[in-house]
Amino acid sequence: MALLLLMLCWFFCQGAPYLYAQEEGGDEEPPYEGIPFEEDWEGYISDPYTRGDQTFTISLGFSFPTVFLNNGNAIDHHFEPPVGGTGSLAYTYFLGAHFFLGGEIGAVINGTLAKGNIFLVPIGLRAGWQFVFRRFEFPLFAVIGFAPQRYLNLNYVGLFMKGGGGVFFRFNPDWSFGLNVDWNWYPQWPMENEKPKPEKNVDANILGLTISARYHF
Question: Which 3 state secondary structure label does DSSP give 198?
């Protein structure tokens, strides 16, 4: 009996401080120290970009031949140029909240009136400025580089320039999806016997419309 009384006293002395603390603290629970969880993305508002933020973009869409110049004069064609296909891979690195640099490689295939196909592989350096409003992002960009070209058994490597813009929706922290519109300039300035032939110069202007997926890291 004495042993039982001693055990009850010991239990009461050990448990009393905890019960008292529970009464003082009300219904509060001790802080959770488990695995942290991510806040609900539905209420997300995009933070400004910082130096070191990067994106990788995959784009696919259509190319629309528009204005063609021959030695500086517009070619008056009474036909509708064939619509082609285009795609690109682009990498960008942000130097601050808005300005970014990077590179791009693409591919363009367009049919011709002679029922052939011309292939272009534009490769260039990319720079731009991006505005952000909530979950919408609006990049403006320019690309300059070179473009190997092939038509039938003819090859040419020339200058390539592109400018455009897009609108993206930030679907989650890792991905955004959007549309791009850009204007592409592909000049062909051939030479014969190491001499320029301006009468054979052709400047192709092509409008591009693509959908894109961007991975953010």
Answer: helix
Phi, psi of 5 (to 5 degrees): -65, -40
Structure tokens at 197: 């032939």
* CATH fold of the domain at 48-216: Porin (2.40.160)
Given a contact cutoff of 8 angstroms between Cβ atoms, the answer to whether 148 and 132 are in contact is no
For residue 214, the SS3 value is strand
The domain segmentation of the chain, as residue ranges, is 48-216
Note whether 210 and 178 are within 8 A (CB).
Answer: no
Q: Indicate the helix (H) or strand (E) that contains 130.
A: strand 123-133
Statement: the pTM of the whole predicted model exceeds 0.85: no
pLDDT in tens, 43-96: 555 567 899 999 999 999 999 988 888 876 777 665 566 889 999 999 999 999
DSSP 8-state symbol, 18? H
